[in-house]
């Protein structure tokens, strides 16, 4: 009789426990997490109850409490695979990768064919910037499930970070072959081509991204620079104009590249205007822009303005050997009086010496000028 009573009591407790858990589950399905937690707390304490409380607190974004309940559950049942998987993901998502790594290693020991276990191990390594460990984990996940898009994307991202661009391109192309409309995959392919300096290959990928409606600052600038780097100057200018108008009109390097592009197609007026904009943006360090301005004037056979642009460049970088030598050459072309030219070559040699990159040329030209003055009897 006593044993029967114990059995009945146990059954009643079990029924009550199940009822409380079911009530909590029903509330959880509609997002009423506060009420669900109350229902779970009224159930008897066992591993299932602890795991359900952990899930509820995870949904509320309270990672600290969720972790406490997961660990309490594992103290009762350390073999529960699904809660352990959820726990590991929570650790990754809450930037606790050091703790997540042994969790996923243990899960992989129990089931090495589960691609998600390898993927989240890769995520944990990636969270620690351990690219060399993350890459093989992502590769394993992808080998187990070739349709695992997240694993492919994170693998490509890490390969780009490690500068293994050929491998990144290979995996991106495979992803695009499966879905040519995948914007993220195309974006990574474009980045890999850009980093590889394969600008001719980057161009059609950027164009494809625009077809997919992904006209971003990076993509527009990347397309413009790719056209620029492949000497397609008109198209480069066209895209830089869009970039300046729609994204960023304060980037000196863009106006610098536009100036060079205009110069190459002999549109000197626009070239000067572009480099002057770059100069206005770059102050106070402007040597590169003034050298470009001098190059435009020289191409346009405006020797006077080329000389004064290089004078301005020298003012910015008085210790630059290339600028000082180019200034001497510009003076040589601009001044008719040889006595006015000599100080520029002397200045170069005084600062940089005869063994500098242009030392021999400067020395020889200085000697020629002095000899010409002597032969002509000039003072």
TrEMBL record:
<dbReference type="Pfam" id="PF07719">
    <property type="entry name" value="TPR_2"/>
</dbReference>
<dbReference type="InterPro" id="IPR019734">
    <property type="entry name" value="TPR_rpt"/>
</dbReference>
<dbReference type="InterPro" id="IPR013105">
    <property type="entry name" value="TPR_2"/>
</dbReference>
<dbReference type="InterPro" id="IPR011990">
    <property type="entry name" value="TPR-like_helical_dom_sf"/>
</dbReference>
<feature type="repeat" description="TPR">
    <location>
        <begin position="115"/>
        <end position="148"/>
    </location>
</feature>
<protein>
    <submittedName>
        <fullName>Uncharacterized protein</fullName>
    </submittedName>
</protein>
<keyword id="KW-0802">TPR repeat</keyword>
<keyword id="KW-0677">Repeat</keyword>
<keyword id="KW-0732">Signal</keyword>
<dbReference type="Pfam" id="PF13181">
    <property type="entry name" value="TPR_8"/>
</dbReference>
<dbReference type="Pfam" id="PF13432">
    <property type="entry name" value="TPR_16"/>
</dbReference>
<feature type="signal peptide">
    <location>
        <begin position="1"/>
        <end position="19"/>
    </location>
</feature>
<feature type="repeat" description="TPR">
    <location>
        <begin position="252"/>
        <end position="285"/>
    </location>
</feature>
């Amino acid at each position: 009789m006593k044993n029967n009573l114990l059995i009945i009591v146990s059954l009643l407790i079990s029924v009550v426990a199940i009822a409380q858990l079911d009530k909590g589950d029903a509330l959880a399905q509609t997002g009423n997490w506060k009420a669900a937690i109350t229902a779970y707390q009224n159930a008897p304490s066992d591993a299932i109850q602890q795991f359900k409380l952990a899930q509820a607190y995870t949904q509320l974004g309270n990672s600290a409490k969720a972790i406490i309940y997961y660990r309490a559950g594992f103290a009762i049942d350390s073999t529960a695979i699904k809660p352990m998987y959820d726990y590991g993901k929570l650790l990754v998502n809450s930037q606790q990768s050091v703790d997540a790594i042994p969790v996923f290693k243990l899960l992989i020991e129990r089931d090495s064919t589960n691609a998600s276990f390898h993927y989240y191990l890769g995520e944990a390594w990636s969270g620690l910037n351990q690219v060399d460990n993350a890459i093989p984990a992502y590769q394993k996940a992808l080998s187990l499930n070739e349709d695992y898009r997240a694993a492919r994307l994170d693998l490509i991202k890490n390969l780009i970070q490690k500068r293994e661009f050929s491998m990144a391109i290979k995996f991106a192309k495979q992803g695009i072959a499966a879905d040519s409309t995948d914007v993220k995959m195309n974006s990574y392919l474009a980045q890999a081509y850009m980093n590889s300096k394969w600008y001719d290959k980057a161009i059609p990928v950027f164009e494809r991204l625009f077809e997919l409606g992904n006209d971003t600052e990076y993509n527009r600038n990347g397309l413009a620079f790719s056209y620029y780097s492949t000497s397609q100057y008109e198209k480069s200018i066209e895209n830089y104009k869009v970039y300046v108008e729609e994204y960023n009109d304060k980037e000196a390097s863009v106006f610098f590249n536009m100036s060079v592009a205009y110069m190459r197609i002999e549109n000197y007026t626009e070239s000067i205007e572009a480099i002057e904009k770059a100069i206005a943006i770059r102050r106070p360090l402007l040597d590169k822009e003034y050298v470009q301005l001098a190059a435009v004037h020289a191409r346009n056979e405006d020797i006077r303005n080329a000389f004064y642009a290089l004078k301005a460049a020298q003012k910015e970088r008085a210790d630059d050997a290339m600028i000082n030598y180019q200034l001497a050459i510009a003076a040589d072309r601009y001044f008719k009086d040889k006595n006015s030219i000599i100080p520029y070559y002397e200045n170069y040699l005084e600062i940089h010496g005869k063994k500098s990159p242009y030392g021999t040329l400067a020395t020889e030209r200085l000697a020629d000028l002095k000899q010409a003055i002597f032969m002509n009897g000039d003072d």
